[in-house]
Amino acid sequence: MHRPLIVSLLLTLLFTAGFPACTFAQTVENSVYGPLPVFEFHSGFWVNLHHTLYEEAKYRTPQGPKGENSQAVQASKSSPDDKAASRPTLKTSGSKAPLTPAEQRAWDDALNYYAANYTDKDLLFTLELILIKNQLGDFDGCDELSGRKNKTCDAGLPGNLTHVLEEAAPVYRAHQWPEHDLANRRWVMRVAPLVREQGVGLSQRLADIYQTKWPKDKIRVDVCAYANRAGAYTTLDPLRVTISSIDPRNQDVEALEVLFHEASHGIADNVQQAIIRECHQREKPIPRDLWHALIFYTTGEVIRPVIAATNPDGSR
């Protein structure tokens, strides 16, 4: 198989220049626009709860008041650059009812558990967290995870985690989930017309460039209030995308670029292999993350005409 043309061209440029050497389970795609091509969008309760606990546990500070999310505290101590890179915040309307003492204890217990067991691990690279995320997605049609009421809803998670999630679930459902789910659904409503209009053509174009086949089955996209620091990430086997509906980098037509960039992780192995072969043949060190840069560049170029048509003034 010939190496992808874009790889050959870019490698030649790099080496010539001496370049030195990363309800609950809900499928929302059918809500307005009918079945969509390429992607299958989900706003799942358990996956959203999992990412929310991870996010809040990661950003809270031991010095703050009990149960306080540390974002405001951290912002007051951070530099302007740090603030620019801070996590997205859901804009809420009106005042929220405060947590009862019992709810606060349940939520604090969940945050403490996540802080002790997961926040030092990476959502993208830690197999344990990947398996948890996938398992929660597979059971996002259940209102429990232990199978006590319904044996088919036994998710097979570690007992402590199952207990923590089930105890935190009523708190999340009452105080955050309605707005998170609404944000997720609004995001899908905005991106769905673009996926319907452009999805098949873009997927075919990218598959041709990478000289492979686009996945036959639709790619599951878990739409969450919070994803990871990058705003979206992709795990393989099975190929699944997790994307933040409130991250400013994932809005409007740029959402289409993020979706296809993430999905390309599942078909771009040829790129990485071609880079490795070329570097070995030239006895050059393999530039770190060059394959990822190529995915960024390729997706951007393929999406560029769509962006130009959507934004006639050339803005992004």
Q: What features would you describe in this structure?
A:
- The chain has a 4-stranded mixed beta sheet with strand order 1-2-4-3, sandwiched between helices.
- Residues 1-25 and 61-85 have low confidence and may be disordered.
- With 316 residues, the protein is of the alpha/beta class.
- 52% of the residues lie in helices and 6% in strands.
- The longest helix is centred in the middle third of the chain and has 33 residues, at 177-209.
- The protein contains 11 helices and 4 strands.
- Helix 2 (45-59) packs across helix 5, helix 2 (45-59) packs across helix 7 and helix 8 (177-209) packs across helix 11 (290-310).
Task: Indicate the percent of residues in helices.
Answer: 40-55%
Shape summary = globular
N-to-C SSE string, H for helix and E for strand: HEHHHHHHHEEEHHH
Q: Give the strand line-up of the largest sheet.
A: 1-2-4-3
Count of helical regions = 11
Radius of gyration: 21 Å
Average residue-wise pLDDT: 82
Can you summarize the main beta sheet?
Answer: 4 strands, mixed
Structural class: alpha/beta
Instruction: Please give the oligomerization state of what you see.
Output: single chain
The total strand number stands at 4
What portion of the residues fall into strands of 2 or more residues?
5-15%
- Terminus-to-terminus distance: 36 Å
- Residue ranges: pLDDT <50 for 5 or more in a row? 1-25, 61-85
